[in-house]
Design a protein that fits this description.
By secondary structure, the chain is an alpha+beta fold. It has a six-stranded mixed beta sheet, sandwiched between helices. It contains nine helices and 20 strands. The two termini are 33 Å apart. Helix 2 packs across helix 3 and helix 3 packs across helix 4. The chain is 24% helix and 32% strand. The protein binds adenosine-5'-diphosphate and magnesium ion. The site of magnesium ion has 2 residues, from helix 1.
Length: 373
């Protein structure tokens, strides 16, 4: 079993004014793949290191299965950790690197051999067992680091940005391999990354953090479609969600978002999801993802709800074009995805339609969502 229960965990580093981790409460289920994601310095590594026992817990309780482990030594927690810098011993062969921990623990030689071979097979590094780390590529070294963790057969794997040192192609490949590894080993994985793509593709559940505080714990799909606040909305997805300061206006049976010269009618289903009653004439932040904005042939007017925009920059990615525009009432750029080979050019004035089934609305001050799921 590899259940982890974090209950109101705090980390206050000596001399720091603010806790690095605040009131972190989370149940990690056995065999789950949980990802901690957030910008640099938000407390991901600190939390992981507290689980590993490498960092003291200032306040709160940590349980692994049913045992409280706040004061338990790292080596007695039945956990293996893999870091960004693989920390392999340069003078040892791959085999020796992988078997090092087992040898320390005086595991019989035969058993060591079996375990290393089995792990090497899973990771596809059997041919390299006699090589030294310097004769391996970055990806192969990272596999050895994983192998060293696997042979210990821990209840829980903790991985701290293990792919950061790899080039983009190798990173994508190792992503898939780690997912396969998780399926094969059937143990709990807790994976830390600052990269939202990595989080979205790997995690079955994602913990989004900011300033030491959990913002949202959810599946990748829910994070994308139902971000609980503006931070999560902006952090998940590239290019980023567009944010527009709008005033919501009720007219007859309809609700409109107005900004600058624009007046966009909101979809009825979306209006039903608004949690608060007195939104008429109040300011909110409207969020819309670049794929939920469409180019239209018609001329934009206030009556037809289309948004007039001026094209500033086209980013042609081959499979799509990212179009950066300016529009009335929106600070900064409004970006949308367009099909490849679309005939638009810089400085064109175009008409855009917002798919208002897909919009998000956030409180202007608290930045929390005002929509139900
Ligand atoms: P992340 O892994 O999300 O980038 P960290 O957990 O490493 O973030 O750091 C969280 C915060 O704690 C940061 O503000 C960092 O400067 C601070 N911090 C990390 N380690 C220490 C330490 N050993 N002593 C003091 N402050 C630290
Ligand atoms: Mg870190």
């Amino acid at each position: 079993m590899g259940r982890i229960s974090l209950q109101h965990i705090y980390k206050i580093y000596p001399g720091a004014t603010e806790p690095a981790v605040k009131d972190f409460t989370l149940e990690i289920h056995d065999k789950e793949f949980v990802v901690f994601v957030g910008p640099s310095g938000c407390g991901k590594s600190t939390t992981l290191r507290m689980i590993a026992g490498l960092e003291e817990i200032s306040k709160g309780d940590l349980y692994i299965d049913d045992r409280k482990v706040n004061k338990v030594e790292p080596k007695d927690r039945d956990i293996a950790m893999v870091f960004q810098n693989y920390a392999l011993y340069p003078y040892m062969t791959v085999f020796q690197n992988m078997s090092f921990g087992l040898r320390l623990r005086k595991v019989p030689k035969k058993e060591i051999e079996q375990k290393v071979l089995k792990a090497a097979k899973i990771l596809g590094i059997e041919e390299y067992l006699d090589r030294k780390p310097k004769a391996l590529s970055g990806g192969q070294r990272q596999r050895v680091a994983l192998g060293r963790a696997i042979v210990r057969e821990p209840k829980v794997f903790l991985l701290d940005e293990p792919l950061s040192n790899l080039d983009a192609k190798m990173r994508a490949q190792m992503r898939t391999e780690i997912i396969k590894l998780h399926n094969e080993l059937q143990t709990t994985f807790v994976y830390v990354t600052h990269d939202q793509t990595e989080a979205m593709t790997m995690g079955t559940r994602i913990v989004v953090m900011k300033d030491g505080v959990i913002q949202q714990v959810d599946t990748p799909d829910n994070l994308y479609d139902y971000p609980t606040n503006k931070f999560v909305a902006g952090f998940i997805g590239t290019p980023q969600m567009n944010f527009i300061d709008v005033t919501l206006i009720k007219e007859n049976e309809n609700t409109y978002a107005t900004f600058g010269k624009n007046k966009v009618k909101l979809d009825e289903e979306t209006v039903k999801r608004i949690k608060i009653s007195d939104y008429n004439n109040h300011q909110f932040v409207l969020g819309i993802r670049p794929e939920d904005i469409y180019l239209e042939d018609e001329k934009a007017t206030r009556e037809n709800g289309l948004v007039e925009a001026k094209v500033k920059v086209l980013e042609k990615l081959g499979n799509e074009i990212l179009v950066y525009t300016n529009c009335s009432g929106k600070d900064g750029e409004l970006v949308f995805r367009s099909k490849p080979r679309t005939n638009i050019y810089e400085d064109d004035v175009i008409s855009l339609r917002f798919d208002t089934k897909q919009i998000h609305l956030f409180d202007f001050n608290t930045e929390e969502t005002i929509l139900t799921r």
